[in-house]
């Protein structure tokens, strides 16, 4: 005899949800975790994706994949765009500018096919940065929800970019961004009192955190894309956050007060792992980093690790060091008996291992949340975007890590490693955050109820 859950899931299989992730690892992972969660609740799933950075579809036989926007290999709009770093985001400007007609056509075909199969397309869920999809969904009377893959706090900062620009913070990047990104010269910025000041509207931040985001408000730049993202998130039918209430409670209250669309905070890392959605082959022992550094900074990291005299695991992705294929800059004999270096590994599984005491991360939100989920203190070395905001929260608000805000000098690195390895108060705060998350996932907890509310909401369309 079928259980009530099985009967409900059978009924929901006639409801199809179309999901459209941004084609970058930190955005693909949570979207596919969300897709798995919704599939487990009985919905049929179609994934729209670009050919650029497409995931391994054989890992998801239960999903239907459709590839759009860049199917023509002769299309010169994409042929000369870089594959990595901030330059790769130019691809998104092209997609957002030119993708509406093709997306509308594909959605019309999917909606027609679903109707012929006695299905119903309930809604479209897109990455928040696909801001052009709101007008397409509206033209088809199709509800659009957005998945925001960064923190609620960073959204509030992004929504305040016009105000921050009026305060003159964004224009500081003209003269200070180069030394900030230079790492080794970053210590000189301590003499710039303006950069060390608190941000009046967000006193937990320093001005240099805003500068380090790297945004300007040009219409065709990252700042313009963020402006459009914020506007269209507010126009959406709902917002799904990769977070949980107890981690960002005051931010959630602010967003629910200011945005009429419902918000659903769900920590995806505790529902499904990310290994199957990786764009790299994996050694199932260690974990990845997706940023890129100059060789001189890389060597400071090496010396900082050596001088710390701690055991370590280090993933160095091919291309991580500018101008190198992989490990060419390493000195002979490194890492020795204290460490191991690999190209990729399932980060989430490693963080959950009892041997892990600390996590050195660029401060991207997925990595930050996974570390919180496992109760592991962090060393944060942010590059741009939301990463410096996350790092500041980790170090100064939650107090579960160290922010390398004065550069990547070996002495700072060694000191940070030793601190997170020995600071028991920090480790206890990290354990408490993990406990709050675990309670939120139990029946009646905030994350459990958020999932149930999302399922009921989508089922109502």
TrEMBL record:
What InterPro entries does this protein map onto? UDP_glucos_trans
Kindly list the GO molecular function terms attached to this UniProt entry: quercetin 3-O-glucosyltransferase activity; quercetin 7-O-glucosyltransferase activity
Q: Which organism is it from?
A: Helianthus annuus
Task: Fetch the PANTHER family from UniProt.
Answer: GLUCOSYL/GLUCURONOSYL TRANSFERASES (PTHR11926), UDP-GLYCOSYLTRANSFERASE 76B1-LIKE (PTHR11926:SF1464)
- CDD domains for this protein: GT1_Gtf-like
Keywords recorded for this protein, A-Z: Transferase
**Gene Ontology cellular component terms for the protein in this record:** cytoplasm
Q: Tell me what this protein is called.
A: Putative UDP-glucuronosyl/UDP-glucosyltransferase
Q: Which Pfam families match?
A: UDPGT (PF00201)
Q: Which family does it belong to?
A: Belongs to the UDP-glycosyltransferase family.
Q: Does the keyword Transferase apply?
A: yes
Domain of life of the source: Eukaryota
């Amino acid at each position: 005899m079928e259980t009530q859950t099985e009967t409900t899931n059978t009924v929901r299989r006639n409801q199809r949800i179309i999901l459209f992730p941004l084609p970058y690892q930190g955005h693909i992972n949570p979207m596919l975790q969300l897709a798995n969660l919704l599939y487990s609740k009985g919905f049929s799933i179609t994934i729209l994706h670009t050919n650029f950075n497409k995931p391994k579809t054989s890992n998801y036989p239960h999903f239907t994949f459709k590839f759009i926007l860049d199917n023509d290999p002769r299309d010169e709009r994409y042929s000369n765009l870089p594959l990595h770093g901030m330059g790769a985001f130019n691809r998104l400007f092209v997609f957002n500018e030119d993708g509406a007609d093709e997306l509308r056509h594909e959605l019309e075909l999917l909606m027609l096919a679903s109707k012929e199969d006695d299905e119903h397309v309930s809604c479209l869920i897109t990455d928040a940065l696909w801001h052009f999809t709101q007008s397409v969904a509206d033209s088809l009377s199709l509800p659009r929800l957005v998945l925001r893959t960064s923190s609620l706090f960073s959204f509030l900062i992004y929504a305040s970019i016009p105000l921050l620009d009026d305060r003159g913070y964004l224009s500081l990047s003209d003269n200070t961004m180069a030394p900030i990104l230079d790492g080794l010269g970053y210590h000189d910025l301590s003499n710039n009192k303006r950069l060390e000041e608190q941000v009046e509207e967000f006193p937990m931040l320093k001005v240099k955190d805003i500068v380090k985001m790297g945004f300007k408000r040009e219409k065709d730049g990252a700042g313009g894309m963020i402006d459009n993202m914020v506007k269209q998130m507010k126009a959406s039918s709902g917002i799904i956050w990769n977070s949980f209430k107890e981690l960002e409670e005051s931010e959630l209250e602010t967003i629910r007060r200011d945005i009429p669309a419902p918000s659903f905070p769900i920590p995806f890392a505790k529902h499904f792992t990310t290994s199957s959605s990786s764009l790299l082959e994996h050694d199932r022992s260690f974990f990845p980093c997706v940023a890129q550094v100059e060789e001189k900074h890389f060597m400071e990291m090496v010396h900082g690790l050596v001088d710390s005299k701690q055991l370590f695991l280090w993933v160095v992705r091919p291309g991580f060091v500018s101008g190198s294929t992989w490990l060419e800059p390493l000195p002979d004999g490194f890492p020795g008996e204290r460490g191991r270096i690999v190209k990729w590994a399932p980060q989430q599984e490693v963080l959950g291992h009892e041997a892990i005491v600390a996590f050195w991360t660029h401060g991207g939100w997925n990595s930050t949340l996974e570390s919180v989920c496992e109760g592991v203190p962090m060393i944060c070395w942010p590059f741009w975007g939301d990463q410096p905001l996350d790092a500041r929260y980790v170090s100064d608000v939650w107090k579960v890590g160290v922010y390398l805000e004065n550069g990547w000098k070996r002495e700072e690195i060694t000191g940070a490693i030793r601190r997170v390895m020995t600071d028991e108060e920090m480790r206890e705060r990290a354990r408490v955050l993990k406990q709050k998350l675990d309670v939120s996932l139990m029946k009646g907890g905030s994350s459990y109820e958020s999932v149930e509310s999302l399922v009921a909401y989508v089922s109502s369309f």
